[in-house]
Specification:
With 229 residues, the protein is mostly helical. It contains 8 helices and no strands.
Length: 229
C-alpha cells in the first residue's frame, strides 16, 4: 500500500520525535527560568522575561524558523570571517530546528509555569521556613511538586502543539516525518495516501502523549482533595 516507503516514514517519525523531545526539554528549562524571572523582585529580569514572551509569542513559528536558520547562518559566517575563518559554516538543520522550537515554546511555558507557581499557597512556603527548611529544600520538597501538578494541563497542551509544530523543520531540509512523506508522495504521485499516513503517525504520537499525561495527572493528584465537603 505504501510502496515500500514505510521504513522511510518510520525513520522520519523517529527524527520528529527526537526533535520534539529535545525541544521540549529546552522549552521547559527556558520556561522555568522565564517564570522565575517574571516573579523576581528585581525589575531587570522581569523586563527581559516580558520582552522575551511578548516578542516570541507575537512572531509566527515559520518566520522564526527561517530567521534562525538563514539569518543565523549569515550571522555566524560574518563573525567567523571577521575572526579570520575562511571556510563557509553550515548550520545543522537539526540543531536549528531544536533551538527554534525550544525557544518558541519556552515563551509559552514561561506563562504556564508562572501561573503554576502563583497557584501554590504562599503559606506553605512560610510553613517550611518555620520548620527550619532552607529555600532550596522548600523549592524541592514543597514548591516544585505542587507547581508541577498545576502546570500539567499547560504542559500537556503545549506538548501536543509542539509535536505537531515540528513539521515546520521540513522547510529547512531536515529529513523528518513530513519531509519523508513529501518525498514519497512526489515519487509515487499519491499525495493523499502518504499525507494520511503522516497524519496517522502524528495522531499516534498525540494519543500516546495524552495517555502519559493522564497517568501523570492521576499520579500527582494522589492525596489532593478535588471535591467540596
Amino acid at each position: 500500500m505504501l510502496h515500500g516507503f514505510l521504513p522511510s516514514l518510520i525513520q522520519g517519525a523517529w527524527v520528529t520525535l527526537s526533535v520534539a523531545l529535545v525541544s521540549m526539554a529546552m522549552a521547559m528549562a527556558l520556561g522555568l527560568l522565564g517564570a522565575m524571572a517574571k516573579l523576581s523582585k528585581w525589575r531587570l529580569p522581569r523586563a527581559l522575561a516580558y520582552v522575551y514572551t511578548t516578542l516570541i509569542r507575537g512572531v509566527p513559528d515559520l518566520v522564526m524558523m527561517l530567521l534562525v536558520f538563514f539569518g543565523g547562518q549569515v550571522a555566524v559566517n560574518a563573525i567567523a570571517t571577521s575572526l579570520g575563518h575562511a571556510d563557509y559554516i553550515d548550520i545543522n538543520p537539526y540543531i536549528a530546528g531544536v533551538l527554534t522550537i525550544g525557544f518558541i515554546f519556552g515563551a509559552y511555558l514561561t506563562e504556564a509555569f508562572r501561573g503554576a507557581f502563583l497557584a501554590v499557597p504562599p503559606g506553605q512556603r512560610e510553613a517550611g521556613l518555620a520548620f527550619g527548611m532552607t529555600p532550596a529544600q522548600i523549592a524541592w520538597r514543597i514548591t516544585f511538586p505542587q507547581m508541577f501538578r498545576h502546570a500539567l494541563p499547560g504542559l500537556s497542551n503545549n506538548w501536543l502543539v509542539l509535536i505537531k509544530s515540528t513539521a515546520i523543520v521540513s522547510v529547512i531540509g531536515l529529513s523528518d516525518l513530513m519531509t519523508r512523506g513529501q518525498q514519497a508522495a512526489g515519487t509515487t504521485r499519491e499525495p493523499f495516501v502518504f499525507y494520511v499516513a503522516v497524519a496517522i503517525i502524528y495522531l499516534i504520537f498525540t494519543s500516546a502523549s495524552e495517555l502519559v499525561f493522564r497517568q501523570l495527572r492521576t499520579r500527582f493528584a494522589i492525596g489532593v482533595r478535588t471535591g467540596s465537603l
